[in-house]
């Protein structure tokens, strides 16, 4: 079963590992006590970020893989100000291009669901998987 955004938001409200286990059970999600403990710790983490976590949020130099991460027709979320907006991939560049810090990335053409705006210059690091 794929977790939805709503499920993740609900899980963040759990006050204890036991409550998280009960929520998972109510959604027919198999979760061991050990998995629930790890998930609860991640959902309620405070303090300093690890180097990997910091790289993920600091707009560091993301480098695309050898093949595009997203495919034509795929429904995705595109960075849009204070969040992500749903969009559809229309095309992907034939080769990787230099990003803002000279990192190589695939460039996508997308069409936003709301309003139908088309953008032809969306770098891969500005796109996330989107669950309907």
Descriptive report:
The structure is a single chain. This protein has 132 residues and is an alpha+beta fold. It has 2 domains: 5-46, no CATH class; 75-129, SH3 type barrels, CATH 2.30.30. Helices cover 27% and strands 25% of the residues. It is built from 4 helices and 7 strands; from the N terminus they run ααααβββββββ. The strands form 2 sheets. Strands 6-5-2-1-7 form a 5-stranded antiparallel sheet, with no helix packed on it. Helix 2 packs across helix 3 (33-43). It is elongated.
Describe, in short, the structure shown:
This protein has helices at residues 5-12, 17-26, 33-43, 51-57; strands at residues 75-79, 84-92, 97-98, 104-105, 107-112, 118-123, 127-129.
List the helices and strands and how they pair.
Blueprint (H helix, E strand, L loop, with lengths): L4 H8 L4 H10 L6 H11 L7 H7 L17 E5 L4 E9 L4 E2 L5 E2 L1 E6 L5 E6 L3 E3 L3
Antiparallel strand pairs: 1-2, 1-7, 2-5, 3-4, 5-6
Helix pairs in contact: 2-3
Core attributes:
about 130 residues, alpha+beta, 5-stranded antiparallel beta sheet, 2 domains, SH3 type barrels, about 25% helix, two-stranded antiparallel sheet, about 25% strand, elongated
